[in-house]
Structure formats: C-alpha cells, structure tokens
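Tokens as discussed.
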C-alpha cells in the first residue's frame, strides 16, 4: 500500500460517520457538527438546488469537499459571521439516486458526515397532498387542549416547561397527536373532512409553548405531542380514515429560544432593533400609496411579540432556508394543505418567492393565509393578499390561493348583533359577499365563526342558541371552505382576553374529566341539540355537492332577512333564508321567482318536513331556513 493511500485509510478510520434521523439529533461529541438543516432531502425534486446550513462549534474554519456521488455536485460553500456555521450548496441532478453522500470537512479536525438523500414519493402517491377545497369541512383544534392520548409524553425531561398543569391557562395541559387520532371517529361522524391542528412543531419555550406559534426547531415535532415519526403516522392514519390534515406554518417569526436566535448565523438573518419595538400591526402600510416610510418599517421589520424574533426574509439565504423547510414538511409527511400564520407580516417579495416555490413543487397543495382584517379595512384590503384582479402594487402580486375570511365573519356577526339598515346589519353581509369580484376565486377562502384568537361565537351572540344555529347554517351553506372551531358544536364559550379562556380543554379529552362531550350520553340536552344540528347539516353538505361547488345567487336583504340560493347545472338548488330579526317574518317568495322557476315543493333540510307552499316562507326569529327545492 502506498503511503498516500495509508494516510487516507487512517484518516477515514479516525472519522465518525453519522446520519441524521427523521428527528434532528445532535451528532456525537467526537464530531464538530451538531446538526444540518434540512435534516435530509430527496432526489427527484423539481428544483435541483439544495442549501445546507451546517452548525457546529468553530466549524467555519473547515474546508468542505464532497466524496464522489453520481448526480450530485458541490457548488461551493461559504462562511457566515458566526464561526459556528457553514453554508454548503449542492446541485442534485434528475439522474441522482437515493443514498448517503459524504461531506468531508477538513480543518483543525477532520470529519466525514453522511447526509441522506431519499426517494421522492409524493408525485406518484395519490394518498398524499390531496389538497383542500370547498368540498371540505375543516375542524380547527389546539392539540394541547383537545385530548390526551399518550400520558407518557406529558413530562419532557430537559424541556424549559417540562410538565403539565391543567389549572393554568398558560401551561401545557397534555393533549397530543394520539389524542386527536383516538377521536377520528367523532370527527368523521360530525361531518368533518379535514383537521387543522395549530402548529405541532417544537415550542420549547418557558411559557405558553402550548399554542405552537413560537417555534424553536423548524425540523422537529414538539415532543409533548409525539415524535416526527408519530406525526407521519398521524397523517397516514388520517388519510386512511378519509380525513385530510392541514399543517399550520409560521413564516413570520420564531421563538426566542430557537437555536438560530441563540446562536445567530449573522446579524442580517434577523431584524434587529436597539430595544424591543412593538409593531403597528397595520398591513395597509404595504400598499398605501401615501404611506410614511417609518410606518411601513414598523409593520414589516418589528417583532410580532417580545419573545418572537423576526427573520429577515429579504435576505436570500434566509429565504432559501425557510422555503426548503416548508417543502420538507410536505414531502416528509404528505400533509394536504398549509394554513399560513400572520401571512401579511412577512416580506412581500419573500411571500411571492415562497408561494411560487411551494406551488411549483406541489400544485395540488391546499393553501390559505391568516389575513386578519378589521371591518374598516374591507374586502379590497383582504383580497389584496390573495390571488386577485388587481395589477401588481408596489411590486407585489399575491400568489396565495385563499384567505381566512375575517371580513365575511365580521359581517355575519354584525347581522346578528346590530339592527339592519341600508348599510348596516344584513347589508354588511350582502356587501361582503358582493365584493367577491375582487378575488380570483372566492370559493378558496376559508369562512369561520370563531377560532383560537377571537371570541367564541356562542359568547359573542349572548349565548343565544337560536343565533348560533343560524350562524352555523350560514357557515355550512355559504360559498368557500367552512372551518369549525373545536367545541363550537357543544356550546363551548368565552372571550379572547386572556386568550387561555377561549382555549379550554375539550370536555372528556383528558383523564379524570367529569363530563365527556365526545359522547351523546356525556352531553347536556342543550349540547346534544347543538351537536345534532351541526352533524345533520354538515353531513348533508358532505353528500350534496351543490353546497360545495354550486353557484351562489343572493338577493339584496330586505327587512333584516338575507336570502341566497346555491344551484348547479344539474338542476340541484338549495334555498337559504336568514331571518336576523328578534321577531318572526313572513316572506313572500315571488321576489325570488328567477331561482324558484320550475320548482313546486321543497324539503326542509333541518327538519325533514316537506314544504308544498312556495308562495310564502314563515321564518321564526333568529332562524335559518335551508330548503332543498324539488
């Protein structure tokens, strides 16, 4: 053996070859590498470029080489401000095969690191990434507050908040992925087709980590919920049960205990202020033609909250890091859709780049964003953040398919809490729907009554069961993708300040609960009545495509009554009439002749009663009529 070959053999024998598992773990102490993001990747992706962020103490002093791997090319590497990072750029050609490529790092110490390339499966697997559409009914839940199916993960040793305390609204309560899975049958029976858990990624924060919006690891599931592998199985089992899964993603911020903040790759990876500066929360500064530069800066470059650092998405290296992460979660798990948290707060240029990259790889992925609007901002401002009819404004042209429709929700609630007039009450609802012309496709918007950030609808409506039923009838017959917040079907209530009040545990989801609202026997008569109402209408919607994709024709409200029809080319028609008044109304139907023509009777969807008189409708106070015309 020649001397050079002997030295090479000794070098290889002295090096440790490590492989990152699906859940990111620290490399052995003998290696200078603590982690690489992404934790692994795939061959067969449309974009052949891959940026690896390599982290380890003093690793910037290393030179990087790539052992020969057919179809993979090392394009270069670069140092960052921190001595603990290296960026490694690879190109993976379409001819590359799955396997483990070896990165060779040469510095004060030498190491070979095995990086796994897997075979991409998503394009050929029809059980993955099925998309979200108006045919779905989404059930939004908070994993920590829904059900505890695995008590072994209640306490996570070494975590900054290791245990549970159900008597504290800011502590963990113990809910997890297994708990959700154990209630798939409950959700299916209710008429749900898609589950939206609030973020399941790691939130290793000392306080309020339960909500999931202060992530501390982009590539790990929160251990209080399970492992990465548990999440993959969760999605698979949901699909086997006919349920889709929506992954809640946070683009705009991270938690202040994220390793990228504690050991920053470079100062320009985050927006930095001398002291904490709260933003103005005014998304209108992005497209305001008269905006003051300082106001725009206070919206787009400040932290969302004191413990939520703001990544500088205009930095191309940061943008690539984030884009790769959200491609990774789709390919790894096969989730069906993305709900994008605080969508409007991200850098507009980055949003266009991010959306384009995600939808190019996964055109079938459902995607909708949190575009939280106040009533004064109106439909136009909400539509600006989705695919719309507007030309580019300040260089921004949204590629987000749909919005969470806050404007429509506010209009519905005003219809039930304020008297109607020419521009008030039910008129607000009419005009909110009339504004659909500004969207490319308003049916991709998610409509809702309440969620984890706003007052529960039962409380907003003064705990009036009649009003809640009317609101739910609207939710399940209006255009768009309906979203139900966990517990609304069993009259859970409370207001949003403090937030923990509207994020209470679902009764029956935890050991020792005195009541179990998952079962008919465990519900009060009022809860059972509301549950049965939702179940009947949701399952009717599930089996009647006219309420999913049918055209909507509505009539200008009169005297606090709003009437609309859902109809399709096959002749199916459903009439919906909302009486938003505290008194009963007798409504002549002649005004709606253009949509009633050819029909002689109807069946009341909610009561099953046959309606033979299509001349007049008698509608009790705060009641919705839902008639299938015949």
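Sequence:
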């Amino acid at each position: 053996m020649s001397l050079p070959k002997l030295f090479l053999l000794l070098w290889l024998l002295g090096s440790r070859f490590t492989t990152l598992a699906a859940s990111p773990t620290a490399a052995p102490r003998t290696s200078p590498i603590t982690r690489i993001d992404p934790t692994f990747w795939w061959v067969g992706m449309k974009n052949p470029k891959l940026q690896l962020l390599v982290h380890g103490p003093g690793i910037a002093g290393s030179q990087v080489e790539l052992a020969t791997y057919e179809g993979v090319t090392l394009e270069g590497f670069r140092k960052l401000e921190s001595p603990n990072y290296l960026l490694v750029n690879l190109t993976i050609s379409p001819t590359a095969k799955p396997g483990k490529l070896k990165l060779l790092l040469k510095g004060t110490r030498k190491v070979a690191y095995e990086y796994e390339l897997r075979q991409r499966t998503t394009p050929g697997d029809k059980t993955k990434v099925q998309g979200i559409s108006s045919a779905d009914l989404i059930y939004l839940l908070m994993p920590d507050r829904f059900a505890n199916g695995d008590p072994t993960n209640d306490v996570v040793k070494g975590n900054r908040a290791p245990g549970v305390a159900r008597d504290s609204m800011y502590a963990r309560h113990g809910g997890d992925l297994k708990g959700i899975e154990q209630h798939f049958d409950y959700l299916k029976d209710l008429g749900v087709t898609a589950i939206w858990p609030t973020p399941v990624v790691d939130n290793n924060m000392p306080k309020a980590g339960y909500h999931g919006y202060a992530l501390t690891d982009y590539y790990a599931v929160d251990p209080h919920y399970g492992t990465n592998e548990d999440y993959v199985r969760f999605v698979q089992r949901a699909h086997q049960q006919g349920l889709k899964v929506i992954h809640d993603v946070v683009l705009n911020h991270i938690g202040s205990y994220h390793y990228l903040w504690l050991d920053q790759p470079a100062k320009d990876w985050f927006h930095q202020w001398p002291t904490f500066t709260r933003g103005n929360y005014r998304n209108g500064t992005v497209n305001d033609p008269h905006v003051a530069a300082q106001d725009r800066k206070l919206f787009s470059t400040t932290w969302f909250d004191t413990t939520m650092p703001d990544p500088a998405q205009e930095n191309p290296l940061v943008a690539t890091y984030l884009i790769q992460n959200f491609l990774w979660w789709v390919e790894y798990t096969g989730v069906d859709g993305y709900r994008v948290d605080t969508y409007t707060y991200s850098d507009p240029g980055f949003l266009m780049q991010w959306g384009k990259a995600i939808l190019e790889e996964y055109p079938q992925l459902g995607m909708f964003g949190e575009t939280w609007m106040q009533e004064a901002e109106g439909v136009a401002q909400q539509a600006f953040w989705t695919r719309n009819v507007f030309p580019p404004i300040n260089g921004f042209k949204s590629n987000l398919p749909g919005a969470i429709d806050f404007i429509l929700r506010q209009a519905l609630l005003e219809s039930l809490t304020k008297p109607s007039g020419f521009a008030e009450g039910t008129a607000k609802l009419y005009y909110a729907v009339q504004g659909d012309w500004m969207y490319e496709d308003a049916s991709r918007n998610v409509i809702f009554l309440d969620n984890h950030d706003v007052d529960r609808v039962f409380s907003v409506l003064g705990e009036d069961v009649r009003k809640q039923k009317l609101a739910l009838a609207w939710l399940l017959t209006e255009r768009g993708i309906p979203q139900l917040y966990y517990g609304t079907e069993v009259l859970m209530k409370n207001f949003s300040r403090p937030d923990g009040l509207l994020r209470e545990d679902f009764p029956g989801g935890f050991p020792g609960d005195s009541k179990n609202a998952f079962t008919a026997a465990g519900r009060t008569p009022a809860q059972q009545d509301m549950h049965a109402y939702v179940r009947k209408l949701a399952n009717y919607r599930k089996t009647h495509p006219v309420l999913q994709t049918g055209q909507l024709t509505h009539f200008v409200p009169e005297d606090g009554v709003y009437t609309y029809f859902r109809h399709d080319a096959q002749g199916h028609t459903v009439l919906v009439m909302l009486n938003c008044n505290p008194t009963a109304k007798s409504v002549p139907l002649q005004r709606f002749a253009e949509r009633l023509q050819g029909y002689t009777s109807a069946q009341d969807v909610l009561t099953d009663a046959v309606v033979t008189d299509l001349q007049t409708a008698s509608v009790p106070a705060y009641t919705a009529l839902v008639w299938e015309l015949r």
